[in-house]
Amino acid sequence: MNPLSLLNTNGKQPAPTALEGDYVATLPQSGRRTLTVALAGQPNVGKSTVFNMLTGLNQHVGNWPGKTIEQKAGVYHHNGTTMHLIDLPGTYSLTANSLEERIARDYIIKERPDAVIAVVNAATLERSLYLLAELLCLPAPLVLGLNMVDVAAMEGVHIEPHVLEAALGLPVVPMVASKNKGIRELVDAVETVVAAGENYAPCRPDIREDHRAVLDELGRLISDQVPEPYPVGWVALKLLEGDDEITEMMRQRLPGEIWRRLHAILSEHEDAALAVASGRYEWIGRMIRAAVVRPRTGQISLTDRLDRVATHPLWGLGVLSGILALIFWLTYTVGAPLQELLDVYVVHASAALLRTALAGAPGWLTGLLADGIIGGGGTVITFLPILVIFFAILGLLEDIGYMARAAFVMDRFMHLMGLHGKSFLPLFLGFGCNVPAVMGARIIDSPRARLLTILLAPLVPCTARMAVVAFLAPAFFGPSAALVSWGLVLFSLLVLAVAGMVISRLAFRGEHSAFIMELPLYHVPNGRTIGLFVWQNTVAFLKKAGSIILVMTVIIYALSNFPGPGVEDSLLARFGRWLAPVGQLMGLDWRSMVALLSSFVAKENAIATLGVLYGNGAEGAGLAGTVAGAVAPAAGLAFLVVTMLFIPCAATMATIRQETDSWRWTAFSIFLLLALSFGAGIAVYQGASLLRVGV
Amino acid sequence: LQILNEGGTHTPADLAHRLGVGQGLLEQMLADLERMGYLRQMPARCPSHCAGCPLDGRCAVVEGGRVWSLAEKSRG
Are residues B55 and A130, on separate chains, in Cβ contact within 8 Å? Predict the structure, then answer.
């Protein structure tokens, strides 16, 4: 097919609009022996391959004048014509937002090449056409190099080049540049389009109908003031788009009165950029409908199929609940026996060995090392297997791409329950650690909503709280531990949802929020990535165990033995008994209350403290067994419920102070969480007592 | 923007399906709306002063995917 026949296919020249009027007069004359041709295209569409195929060794690399961006230029000889080829920087569009985009558009406007080859990726034609829509508004005839047609065909995208040519009104050359297919035809098309001269009349995108009159008005207003070589229509369009560079250029050139009128029009039509973009989208849609036989939108990938279930409002929640249950089941089935083995054969064996070795040493030293550091801090180390399994499963879920789906499903669920999405996202970060949850509230614009979100962020169960639950749930509930843990997480989410509703009612009344979440493709997990995730988290935990937890263990041991002789006569016991009235309402003795309080330093301290306080009188038995014997299941459940809702660690409280910039709100947060957690704990224990279950 | 102003959480695939366009063009639309100030891309990682936190970079559950929220300009 002769590409010339495609130009002006309807056989008549359309009336020039404000956009088109400039081009006809500036088109190059046909019949030249030397042509300047620019190559334009988005990154990774094969533009450089086309350039290299054409120029071979006849190319040189430098910089664009006054810029640090690389410029490639070369020469190609064909049928007695010499083509000077300029490789423009790869860009997705032609706004003034990046240096590359400004270079590309300035070159075409100021240097006026005889033709521009727009290279597009046939497999992603829809997006590639956006750049073409912008190039069509510049004063240079275009040829479309439809590259990678082989890749498009493999992906099920079937394009009819001749239909696309007819629809666009410019030559379209199907190519596989990497195999040197279509290169010769591309050059022929360039010569043809240059020869066409005034017959070149492509189908250009138009601005959305409701803003056409405004565009024309702008064109009339500035027509005498636009400097050469800028096309008036293009400048008017860029003014409507809010292009900073062009707006500044016109502000400097226009007389005061005209600039004020222009500025008034632009202020009145601040949304005109949307009308310009909408016009382009509509134009792209028409081209795709005309020329693409099987667009990719109709295809269903494996990710789409899986997401139909995983992100479904109802099934997605079911999948998430199932995965949570599976996490706990696996953690307890595999991790709990390992933890017990470590407790008996490492902690107790080491403590016994130490006592033997230090037979002649002072009693306080033996007690501090064997009962304090090993019995307390060592116990924290025993739940390393549980944490490793927990982190491995989390790492696996994140690596295959599921965690983003979990966030998406939960966000949808929270929206259904009335929770404002802007609060949910930072709150969700709290599942890892409450500190980023508090900091994440910065994305919320309203100070009131931000404050409420910060106050409620500690209600999200972080991994450290989950570790405490993971250790104690099997002790209290044996084979039902997975079910109880699962219930505790759901309970926390319920509290979160109720809290979220309160935030929405108080802070976001009548305000809608919307999110667009990009979900990564599912992929085969990488063992190294998961291993690294587990390693980093485990090391972080061990560092905490070797520093904060160890120091706290020593302090707790000292306070529990001073002035003595036994733990019941210690300073800690006196302090603990002061808390006993509140503890009794939850079925908890002073030891458990002290353990809860010590978790303020770091959540895992609760275990270490229990290790010190219960371990003192429980030779030979594991901590879990000792605690299970001393605490009734109902009281144990109350302890876990309080743990889930209790004041967060000191680092989180410090962050709350920093983010609210107020000691008053920090104190209020502590009071609120104490009231919530103890209230829930008391309700659980008193409820169980009334029903006579587990008391 | 009308769809987004109704509220809720969407994926690009959802939006592309509802608008009858391909994902590639939808990406361009999102880029345009972000550039025009109608959408705001949210940070998916911890703020810089989280450096040193053992969970830095791993606490962001949406890592690997971008998240946009409506900017004030888009309220219509």
Answer: no
> How confident is residue A187, by pLDDT bands cut at 50, 70 and 90?
very high
Give the distance from residue A11's alpha carbon to the nearest chain B alpha carbon, in angstroms: 31
Residue A13 vs residues A133, A199, A205: alpha-carbon distances, Å: 20, 8, 16
Output DSSP code: residue A146: E
Structure tokens at A334: 């595999």
Other C-beta atoms lying within 10 Å of the C-beta of residue A70? 11
Secondary structure letter of residue A459 according to DSSP: G
- Out of B31, B63, B67, the one facing A515 most closely (by C-beta) is B67
Nearest CB neighbour to B46, from listed A425, A436, A539: A436
Cα–Cα distances in angstroms (integers) from residue A17 to residues A9, A13, A25, A376, A512, in the given order: 18, 12, 13, 82, 41
Contact A462, A433 (CB under 8 A): yes
Contact A515 B69 (CB under 8 A): yes
Cα separation, A458 vs A448, whole angstroms: 17
* Tens digits of pLDDT across chain B (76 residues): 777 777 777 888 888 888 877 777 888 888 888 878 888 876 655 444 445 444 454 444 445 567 787 777 766 5
Summarize pLDDT for A335-381 with one digit per residue, the tens.
Answer: 878 877 887 788 778 888 888 888 888 877 887 887 778 876 777 77
Nearest-Cα distance to chain B for A119, in Å, is 16
**Whether residue A90 has pLDDT greater than 70:** yes
Residues A561 and A613: their CA atoms lie apart, in Å, by 10
Of the CA atoms within 13 Å of residue A542, those in its CB half-sphere come to: 9
β-strands A59-63, A34-41 pairing: unpaired
Query: pLDDT of A596-626, one tens digit each?
Result: 888 887 787 788 888 778 764 444 556 777 7
Give bridge partners of residue A71 from the DSSP assignment: A62
Place of tokens 């956006």: A130
| Interchain proximity B42–A425, CB inside 8 Å | yes
Q: What whole-number distance in Å separates Cα of residue A345 and Cα of residue A341?
A: 6
Token pair recorded at residue A594? 């002290």
Q: Which of residues 314-333 of A touch B (CB under 8 A)?
A: none
**So what's the ipTM on this one?**
0.82
Q: Does A155 touch chain B (CB under 8 A)?
A: no
- Indicate yes or no: CB of A518 within 8 angstroms of CB of B11: yes
d(CA A219, CA A533): 58
A117 secondary structure, DSSP code: E
Query: A14 pLDDT band (50/70/90 cuts)?
Result: very low
Residue A113 has pLDDT above 90, yes or no: yes
Using alpha carbons, select from A85, A102, A101, A82 the residue that is nearest to residue A93.
Answer: A101
Q: Strand B8-10 vs strand A514-517: parallel, antiparallel, or unpaired?
A: parallel
- Give me the residues paired with residue B67 across strands: A517
Other C-beta atoms lying within 10 Å of the C-beta of residue B49? 11
Percent of chain A with pLDDT over 70: 87
β-pairing, A59-63 vs A70-78, is: antiparallel
Is B42 in Cβ contact with A540 (below 8 Å)?
A: no
Q: Which residue has the tokens 């009145």?
A: A268
Q: Which residues pair with A61 in a beta bridge?
A: A72
Pairing status of strand A115-121 against strand A34-41: parallel
Stretch (H or E) spanning A356: helix A349-357
Give the residue with greater pLDDT, B26 vs A62. B26
pLDDT value for A416: 63
SS3 A203: coil
A420: Cβ–Cβ under 8 A, 6 or more apart, which residues? A449, A500, A503, A504, A507, A508, A511, A513
